[in-house]
Amino acid sequence: MTGTVVDGTSDPRRRRSVAVRQPKRPGNGHLLFLREFVRAPLRTASVIPSSRSLAEQMIRPLLGRDWSRRPPVVLELGPGTGAFTRVIQEVAPAGTRHLGIELNPAIAQHLSTAFPAVEVVVGAAADLPRLLSRRDVDGVDLIISGLPWQSFAGPGGHRLVSTIAGCLAPGGTYTQFTYSWTRWAPPARRQHRSLSEKFDEVQVSRTIWRNLPPAFVYTSTRPSLP
Q: Which residue among 12, 141, 179, 220 is least enclosed by CB atoms within 10 Å?
């Protein structure tokens, strides 16, 4: 875009046209989400981003503590196009360190543009300890997972829950959402069992009907790791 800059005089000969840079705006996140789901459905959790109602349930542990002594560290696994990210940025205490681990490079680039205050890392959740160590993070207060079912399938998924639990700071919390229509399916039961094995307390939220599809949230605390 070009604009006219006036140097303080009415003389038209003193006027000059210059290029005015507009701030970058991210593309349509919904379209990007749909495109990446079509390209790699096993790596993208849903065909549409999550609702604000689900986001508020996922980050609730962040609001229930006194952070006056030190700001929290919040980590998103599979943040996608930022449905949870936006709410975290709006309500997190001042000084919160906010990281996002995203496997899809295109979505990670979109997230970096839309939320420049978030430390977006392209990588896999299985590499979480190494990724955090490289950024001098020795414990996370809240880990939020938007990872698809495929991430928790098989023995690798069981190890992933252990990895996540081991990256929490003392008193830290892990939240994971699941769609309500899958709650009684074998994968969902295995996931709940895995969480119960790795955490001393696992709470299940009420169904969040204002999400499409409806969902509920596991809130896991007090890792039972050696």
A: 12
